[in-house]
Amino acid sequence: MIEFSGVGHRYGDRVVLDGVDLTLPQSRVALIGANGSGKSTLARTVNGLVTPTEGTVRVDGRDPARQGSAVRRRVGFVFSDPDSQIVMPTAGEDVAFSLRRTVRNRAERARLAAETLTGFGLGDHIEHPAHQLSGGQKQLLALCAVLVLDPDVLVCDEPTTLLDLRNKKAFAERLAGLRQQVLLATHDLDLLEGFDRVIVLDGGRVVADDEPEPAVAHYRKLCT
Amino acid sequence: MSGSRSTLPAASLARVVVFAAFIAVLGLFPGIGGVAGVPIVVQNAGPILAGAILGWKLGTASVALLLGLTAIGLPLLSGGRGGLAPFVGPSAGFVVGWLLSALVTGLIVQRARTRTLPVLLLACLAGLLADYLIGIPVIGLFVGDLGAGLLQSLVFVPGDLIKVVLAAVIAGLVHRALPDLLPPTTSAGSPVR
Amino acid sequence: MTPLGLYEPGTSLLHRAPTGPSLLAVLLIAAGTVLTSDPWVLAGVCGLVALGYVVARVPWRRLRPLLRTLALLLVLIGLVQWWLLGPERALVIALRLVAAIGAASLFTLTTRVDDLVSAVERGLGPLRRFGVRPERVGLLVGLTIQSVGTLSGIAGQVRASAKARGAGGSVTAFAVPFMIRTLRHADALGEALAARGWGDDDTRPSPPHVAEP
């Protein structure tokens, strides 16, 4: 469960988040809103990438600002640009990199990495240079690198921005099949199918909090 | 994008790594003609830019990383050079001097009250002189005569001065585009918006 | 760029020689060439280094660029020094160049980057108590190689858009956007590393080594 209480954040004089109070027990939660609405920043507070200047965040009772290390073990994060997320030369090594603190044995790390990649249809690319994969494959690789740790929560910040329609669909299907709680920040409304709860942010405040259909309707009204 | 800025150690590490790669990529651009055994290339503006943009700490670290990776055999210097050879040839002093370049330029940029063009020009020029301070004596050591080394090095001066001006202009524009890149170390007050 | 770097695979005596002592030998040769001014000694060292290339069976395609660099250096430095200091001194300088650069290049050609990384990690071991983490050296190598690839791609895109704006020849029209995108890439990489737990080992004294349920 993710809880935000009185979360506010400012960069210098610019207010990015303003008094966000949310309790999110649902399995599929989306944050939508225009560019600069604060959804990316809110998502980043969940694993301590951003420490809010006001209020507190709790992930299963833990504060990411104080127990960042423990929270990051439970919260996986997928960003928009897979090129910036892949840190090792080959797909297999990149997934194994995630395991470096939890699995001591190198061969065991490689085995777990290969297993995860195979499960996501990347079994033929384990030895391949990661940066030569297609955009869709790279984003799946980024997802594998997070899921190999079997986190409880998966946060995604605009994960489909750089994907074409087919890859976007494939990614959304993978997401739908996960056991993890998913918190998705996006302005791609096609991804919201099957979500339990959609939160609309505007100017750093929650302006709607509903099921997908009425929430999206509210968002569309905001944009006109 | 919300322009979020991480303060975790990973952010510093990433800057060091990416800037080392940046200096290496500068070496991929064709040189402006090799003279006297030390090719004149845009790459040696890299360490000055590293200092001017990242500050002395991260700037020097990124140069050190680049030199370390070059020494273990990666072809990261201009023209695909690498390995130990650049560190034992006559240009060794100039290459090692890059460390001092980044350090000196970074210190001046961070200590200065403003980041105006004259300040940046001064910082970049000081960085270049710091490089000469190590590079010229090493050439002198190599040829067994400091005067001859000095004379030999004169050919780089015009090209290097052009690079200093370019580095200062670029650093100025980058700092204006990304004002919170380096925290203001002197004079109180938050970055003006 | 290959992760192999400048290494030329082989099975010769020099390829199999231990990394640490080889490195020491190269450094001694480089220092020695500056310390002596006897052309006969220097010529002898050059002969030894040349013998090393024969023993290591360095192929011609790797030798050619090296010889070209050396020739260029010799002509330019040699001529200036001949003029400044006379022929004998110029010969000494030329021999120094050949010996030092030849030995260093031979070492690089016959030593794997992996082996050097391991040697560096071992060498840094004693610094562990000062907070140095030698096991990160390998990762730094990988990350930097990756970033060179990514930045080369960015440089290509930026150059194309500078051309599209009719500013193909302007240095700042290329350099400033390139620089800014480089820094953005650095920020994104930093976030990704942080999200994947980089640096958490530093803030937590003793992380458990088993996966938590």
TrEMBL record, chain A:
This is Biotin transport system ATP-binding protein. Transmembrane segments: none annotated. Residues 2-224 form the ABC transporter domain. GO terms for molecular function: ATP binding; ATP hydrolysis activity; ATPase-coupled transmembrane transporter activity. The lineage of its organism: Bacteria, Bacillati, Actinomycetota, Actinomycetes, Pseudonocardiales. It comes from Pseudonocardia ammonioxydans. Pfam families: ABC_tran (PF00005). GO terms for cellular component: ATP-binding cassette (ABC) transporter complex. Gene3D superfamilies: P-loop containing nucleotide triphosphate hydrolases. PANTHER family: ENERGY-COUPLING FACTOR TRANSPORTER ATP-BINDING PROTEIN ECFA1, HEAVY METAL TRANSPORTER. Keywords: ATP-binding, Nucleotide-binding, Transport. SMART domains: AAA. The keyword Transcription does not apply. Belongs to the ABC transporter superfamily.
TrEMBL record, chain B:
It comes from the Bacteria. The chain crosses the membrane at residues 12-42, 54-77, 83-108, 120-143, 155-174. It is found in: Cell membrane. Keywords: Cell membrane, Membrane, Transmembrane, Transmembrane helix, Transport. One of its GO terms (cellular component) is plasma membrane. Pfam families: BioY. It is a multi-pass membrane protein. One of its GO terms (molecular function) is biotin transmembrane transporter activity. InterPro entries: BioY (IPR003784). Belongs to the BioY family. This is Biotin transporter. It comes from Pseudonocardia ammonioxydans. The lineage of its organism: Bacteria, Bacillati, Actinomycetota, Actinomycetes, Pseudonocardiales.
TrEMBL record, chain C:
This is Biotin transport system permease protein. It is found in: Membrane. The keyword Transmembrane applies. The chain crosses the membrane at residues 23-54, 66-84, 90-109. It holds the Pfam family CbiQ. The keyword Isomerase does not apply. One of its GO terms (cellular component) is plasma membrane. It is a multi-pass membrane protein. Keywords: Membrane, Transmembrane, Transmembrane helix. It comes from Pseudonocardia ammonioxydans.
